[in-house]
Amino acid sequence: xxxxxxxxxxxxxxxxxxxxxxxxxxxxxxxxxxxxxxxxxxxxxxxxxxxxxxxxxxxxxxxxxxxxxxxxxxxxxxxxxxxxxxxxxxxxxxxxxxxxxxxxxxxxxxxxxxxxxxxxxxxxxxxxxxxxxxxxxxxxxxxxxxxxxxxxxxxxxxxxxxxxxxxxxxxxxxxxxxxxxxxxxxxxxxxxxxxxxxxxxxxxxxxxxxxxxxxxxxxxxxxxxxxxxxxxxxxxxxxxxxxxxxxxxxxxxxxxxxxxxxxxxxxxxxxxxxxxxxxxxxxxxxxxxxxxxxxxx
Length: 297
What we know:
The chain is built from eight helices and ten strands. The strands form three sheets. The protein has a five-stranded mixed sheet. A three-stranded antiparallel sheet has the order 1-2-3, with no helix packed on it. Strand 2 and strand 3 (21-23) form a beta hairpin. 42% of the residues lie in helices and 18% in strands. It is α+β, with helices and mostly antiparallel strands. Helix 2 (44-66) crosses helix 3. It has two domains: 8-191, Trna Endonuclease, Chain: A, domain 1; 216-261, no CATH class.
């Protein structure tokens, strides 16, 4: 039997309490010291929608861990979660298992199995293994403090995204480094990550799968919106032609109909072939930024 923490979690405000004392969660620690700009470029509405969807999937998986006999098999991610557990022989022991150092910080582990491996469920488009390594290493550190003599097995991410699911092992960061990070946070002190290196990280197979999924999803949605915009503009054009008007305007937008016309262009390739010396006199070389080109196959 694992030891139950006396820390209480308030789900409404997402806060942890030991008696009347509030403890810090670990998301803020990781954000402040390790990944301060992780979601800075993502619009709030997208973050909120992803958080709501992720919370629903987490809750469904939690309920399955507690009551595995009956579950909502209409939720695709939950079906994949159940299949993943079955295929890997994973038997849940605890769900949303609260762990803490009983002094400054607390958190909840999504799932602990019978072999004391610990798991975190992720529903993001991509899986950040570096972030997960820190998150689960802190969980493992608290787990072993709370359960003297019981060692954590392995650390795993369970990735559930639409029709895709994967079990991915992540590396554990030594407890002494984790403890130094938490101490710095409790003192609001500066802290330097001692395991940062200058090595170039080569994406592994799992990371490439996540990257591929995210890019395909974004490109597909972008193409759908482009086509939607094109169809919408075609309808507006027909409407304006039928009314014989060339402009629609409101406080926020101006739509102008540009009638068909002819345009004249310069055939640079043909000029280069006919007059190469003259062409060379007018060539200008300028620096160009590198960029990513994505092609869906």
